[in-house]
Amino acid sequence: MAGVLFLCAAAVLLLAAGGAVPPPPPPEEAARMARFVLHNCDWGALATLSAQEGLRGHPFANIFSLSDGPPGPFSGSGVPYLYLTDMEISVKDLEINSNASLTVSLAQTPYCKKHGYDPQNPLCAHIIFCGSIVKVKDSEAGLAKKALFSRHPEMENWPKDHNWFFAKFNITNIWVLDYFGGLKIVTPEEYYSVKP
Questions:
Q1: Residue in 40, 158, 150, 173 with CA at minimum distance from that of residue 100
Q2: Which neighbouring-strand residues pair with 165?
Q3: What does UniProt give as the signal peptide span (predicted)?
Q4: Nearest CA to 60 among 83, 89, 38, 81?
Q5: What are the start-end ranges of the E strands in the chain?
Q6: Pick from 113, 112, 138: nearest CA to 126
Q7: Whole-structure pTM value
Q8: Percent of residues in the chain assigned helix, strand, coil, to nearest 5
Q9: In sequence order, what E strands does 54-142 have?
């Protein structure tokens, strides 16, 4: 019995340390799937409407590190936090129009490769969030910092003269593609009410 308990404890520690990705929820649990995918992703593709000369009004996608909480099961808040600077080209777009979409995919985890799923295969789940980017308030900055720096420790040493700030993706719409048959719509209320 002690051996079984030791193995269970070791498995929990391995997951908490960012080891193997646990299996995703079943496809009929779309809100949990959205929370699961976001929590297991360290980065996403953020699309803005460009304000840059020659691209104005066109979609512009860029990669950003993100986190909804420290690694490990049951530690995600569901809120995608980002660490941004006004010097970044996409942030310049957001200063004009804060609306954006954010896509995260299990393709960046070992899960899809292990099962032989191409990133475009619906079984390699991906989530599309629509909403806006907002600076976090001082009362939330500690949560954002812990979430981001626990997964991206080098951020703490990024140049201070770049005036980094914590932001979050304010979710208004969620689409889940995790099985055949098309996208599933999840409301923010459903998303935040489930346990990941």
A1: 173
A2: 84
A3: 1-20
A4: 89
A5: 43-49, 59-65, 81-84, 99-105, 126-135, 165-177, 184-186
A6: 112
A7: 0.87
A8: 35, 25, 40
A9: 59-65, 81-84, 99-105, 126-135
